[in-house]
Amino acid sequence: MAAETFTMYTTPWCGYCQRLKGQLGREGITFEEVDIEEHPDAASIVEKVNNGNQTVPTLVYADGSAHTNPSVLQVKEKLAALAS
To answer: Which residues make Cβ contacts (< 8 Å) with residue 66, sequence separation at least 6?
Structure first.
């Protein structure tokens, strides 16, 4: 995949974030990563798509849709849908 097609909002201490980043890396899927603890404006994006909660990982795709704590399969399916 040539360009990042989603942004992953994370925190450094999030085990689910670390796992998903590893899985995406093994699949060769690139993305932009934003630490919501370093970027409070990003935390508000996460809260907006998670009913006021700062739940991570939250992925926001190029089409504006979002996934909260998705599996790597869900991410791959979404990217395939965006590519078609």
So the answer is: 49, 58, 59, 60
Taking CA atoms, 3 is separated from 7, 28, 32, 36, in Å, by 11, 11, 10, 22
Total length of the chain: 84
Q: What are the φ/ψ torsions at residue 34 (nearest 5 degrees)?
A: -130, 125
Are 82 and 5 within 8 A, CB to CB?
yes
Q: Which position has the token pair 């990563």?
A: 33
Provide φ and ψ at 77, rounded to 5°: -65, -40
Cα distances from 54 to residues 34, 67, 76, 84, in angstroms, run 13, 13, 24, 31
Note the pLDDT tens digit of each residue in 3-58.
568 999 999 999 999 999 999 999 999 999 999 999 989 999 999 999 999 999 99
Instruction: Name the pTM for this structure.
Output: 0.91
